[in-house]
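Chapter summary example.
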Amino acid sequence: MKNYTTVERESERALVVTRTFNGPARIVFEAWTQPELFKRWWVPKSVGLTLLSCEMDVRVGGGYRLVFAGNPEPIAFFGKYLEVTPHSRLSWSNDESPDGTITTVTFEERGGKTRVVVHDLYPSKEALDAAIASESTGGFPEQFEQLDELLQMWTTK
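The structure predicted for these 157 residues follows.
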């Protein structure tokens, strides 16, 4: 059965992305919190970006840093973990720009499947408008397809 990703503007400042994955919340959560797994699905293949490094200290107050090959200089995305509840909830800040979001991800398991909801809260309507216009919010369907593929390989071992 095919899983679909929905991307919806929930309010002037919020974007919500939802998808159900075939696998228990424990495994889906690990794919979000283990750098060696995260690197395998986070970057949409179609954008042609190379993830040079992925550092994750997944604990409240811990940080993350993703560095991508850029032209001419590398591009870094970074922030702090605000909430970490194993297998059910993650929240972090996106601190690389003044228009950074607060991202909260929930993992809800039912019958061996996990419903993931990503909630991005932008600092203003204009910041969300700009993100949508730049298509920086458009990668979720492809990213989640890649996560589905990783989970299929992992759960069928």
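To summarize the output: The two ends are 19 Å apart (CA to CA).
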